[in-house]
Amino acid sequence: MPDKTITKAPAVDGAVPPVASTELAEGETKAREASLMKDAFHDLVRRPLFIVAALVILALLVIAVAPGLFTSRSPFSDGFCNLQHSLEKPGSGHAFGYDLQGCDIYTRTVWGTRNSIIVGVVTSVLTTLVGGVLGIIAGLRGGWLDSVLSRVTEVFFAIPLLIGALLVMAIFQAGNVWTVALVMAAVGWPQVYRIMRGAVIANKHNDYVTAAKALGAGTFRIAFRHVLPNALAPVIVITTMNLGVYIAAEAALSYLGVGVQSPEISWGLMISDAQDRFLTSPHALLFPSAALSITVLAFIMLGDAVRDALDPKLR
Question: Gene Ontology terms, cellular component aspect (predicted)?
C-alpha cells in the first residue's frame, strides 16, 4: 500500500502573511513619521527665527509659572497700591513706574503674564481637541455625518471669533480667565475642524490606508495608527499660531470690559486704564502694550517656523 504523505504547498517567494503585512505597514508608517519629525526638528534648530521665538516663549512660561522669581511683590497684597505714587514715571526701584491707582506697573505686568498664557494654552488645547476629534470623525466616516458637521461648522464660521466671544461674554458677564478660554474655544474650534477634516480626507485614500483596510484593520486603528500621524502637521502649525491670536483676543475682550475683570490682572485691562492718559503718562500704556506685542509676535514667529519645517514644499 503506497505511503500517502501530506505535503504543504511551498510558499510563494516574497509572500508575507497578513499579520506580518500589517506589522510591516505599521512599521513603515512609524518610520516615515519619525523621519519627518526628525527632519523637521533638525530644520527648526537651524532657524534663528525659531531659536529667538522659543527663547522668548520659554521666558514667558517661566514668568507665568513663577512670577515671584522676577518680582518680590504681589499685586494682591495689602498696601500694594499707594495713591501717593499715582502716575509716577519710571525710576529707581520701580522700573516701569506707577499707574493711576499708584500700583507698580512692572509687578502687574509680570503677574499679568500668567493669565495671558493660561488663556492662550487652554483655548488652543480645547479647540484642538474638539475640532480635531470632530474633524477625524467627519473625514473618515463621510456621508450624512460629514454633511451635518460641515453645515454646523459653516454656521460658526459666519461668526468672527472676537465678535462671537464679545457677545457671549456680554451676556453672561462672568469675566475670568477660565470663562474667557471656554468661550473662545466654543467659537474657535471650527478652524481646527476644517483643517483636520481636509488632512484626513487627503490621507485616507493613500495606499497604506487601503492596505490596512484590506488586512482587516478597524476604523479606530486606521484613524490613530495611519491617518492621524500624517494629518497632524497642519493642525500643529495652526494651533501654535493661534496661541498668539487667542492671547490678543483675551486682551481685546478685557480692554472692552467684558473679559478678565478686576481684581484679576490683564494686559488688556492695564491698557484700557492707561489709554486716557497717554499724553501725560505714556509709560502706563507703553509697558503692558509692549509685553502683549512681544508675546503675540513670539507665538506667531514660532508658528511660522514650525510651518516652514513641517511643510516639505517650503524647504
Answer: plasma membrane
Long-range interactions of 57-65: CB distance < 8 A, separation 24+: 57/298, 57/299, 57/302, 60/113, 60/117, 60/295, 60/298, 61/117, 63/110, 63/113, 63/114, 64/113, 64/114, 64/116, 64/117, 64/118, 65/114
Distance separating alpha carbons of residues 217 and 309, to the nearest angstrom = 32
For residue 210, count other CB atoms closer than 10 A to its CB.
13
What tens digit of pLDDT does each residue of 128-176 get? 999 999 998 888 888 898 899 999 998 888 888 888 998 888 887 767 8
DSSP 173: -
Distance, in Å, from the CA atom of 198 to the CA atom of 292, rounded to the nearest integer, reads 33
> Locate cell 516639505: which residue?
312
Dig out the grid coordinates for 304 from the structure: 511660522
Phi and psi at 91, nearest 5°, equal -165, -170
User: Cα–Cα distance between 133 and 221 in angstroms, integer?
Assistant: 14
* Whole-prediction pTM: 0.82
Rg (CA), the chain: 27
* Residue 289 predicted with pLDDT over 60: yes
Mean pLDDT, residues 178-187 taken together: 92
Tell me the three state secondary structure of residue 175: coil
Residue 205: exposure state from Cβ atoms within 10 A (0-12, 13-18, ≥19): exposed
Runs of H (alpha helix) within the chain: 18-44, 48-65, 105-141, 143-157, 161-172, 177-203, 207-214, 219-222, 228-255, 267-274, 283-310
Amino acid at 204: K
What CATH number is given for 31-69+97-314 in this structure? 1.10.3720.10
On whether the CB atoms of residues 306 and 237 are closer than 8 A, the answer is yes
Tell me the pLDDT band of 241, cut-offs 50, 70 and 90. Answer: confident
Beta bridge partners of 98: 104
